[in-house]
Amino acid sequence: MINLDTLLNTPWLLYTSVTFVSLCVGSFLNVVILRLPRMMEQEWRGQCEVLLELPEGQRAPAATPITLSKPDSTCPSCGHRIRAWENIPVVSYLFLRGRCSACRNPISIRYPLIEAITALFSVLTIVFLGPTETALWCLLLVWALIALTMIDFDTQLLPDSITLPLLWLGLILNSFGLLTPFDSAFWGAVAGYLSLWSVYWLFRLVTGKEGMGHGDFKLLAALGAWLGWMLLPAVILLSSVVGAAVGISLILFRRHGREVPIPFGPYLAAAGLLSLWFGDRILAAWVGYLGGA
Q1: N-term to C-term CA, the chain
Q2: Burial of 28 (0-12, 13-18, 19+ CB in 10 A)
Q3: CA angle at residue 270 from 139 to 229, to 5 degrees?
Q4: pLDDT in tens, 25-39
C-alpha cells in the first residue's frame, strides 16, 4: 500500500494522483455550484412560510427536495438521466462532443472547464507550495474558493455552509502551524471580518445603500484564518484593484448598469489564491517596502 511519504517523494505518482482526484472533485463542484443555491432557496421558502404562518392552501406546492446527491443528474433539455460513463470528468464531454447522448442538445462547456480548472489549480498549488502535506491540505482551500467564485458569479451568494467551515478549518489547521502561527490566523480572521464589516457600515451610513454582502466579510475572515493577518493587506489590495478594473470595464464596454451589483467574492477568492501561492514573496516584498520606507 502506498503511504503518504511515498506519494510525496514520487513526483509522477503525486501529480497523477492530484490530477485524477481534482478532476473528480471538479465534477462534484459542478453539482455543488448548481444545487447548493437551490437547496438554500428551498430552505428559505419553507422558513418564510412557517414564519408568516401561511395556511396550507396559500403555501407553494411542495417541491422535490434537492440535496447534493438527489435527484440524479439529468440533461436540462430532455431530462435524460446521466449515466456513469457520461459523467467522467472532461473525457465524457469530449467523447460526446459536447452534446447530450439522448437529445443531442449542447452541454454547457462550463462543466468540463470547471473540472479542468480545478485540476490545473490543484497541480499549481503543489508546484508553488512544494510536494508537502501542507500543500495537500491547501487543496481544500483551493476547491472551496472555486465553488464560492462560481456560486457568487451565478447568484451573488457566498453560502455560510462553505465559508464558515472554511474559516474554522483554517483556524484548526493553523493551530498546528500549517501555514502561519495560530495567533496570526486568529487575528487574521478577526481583522478580515471587521475590515469589510467596517467598510460596509461606513458606506451604508454615507449613502444609505448596502455596498457588499455579509458573505464577503466571512470569506475574507476565512482567508485571514488560513493565510494570517500579514497577508490581508495584499488580499484586500489585489481584490480591490481587480474588482475595480473589471467593474469599470463592464460599465464602459458592456453597458453594465451602475446600479447593478457586481459580486466581490470572486476577486477576494482570486486574491486569496494568489496570496496562497506567492505569500512568501508578497511578505518579503511587503517587509522590504516597510523597511525602506
Answers
A1: 55
A2: middle
A3: 80
A4: 999 999 999 999 999
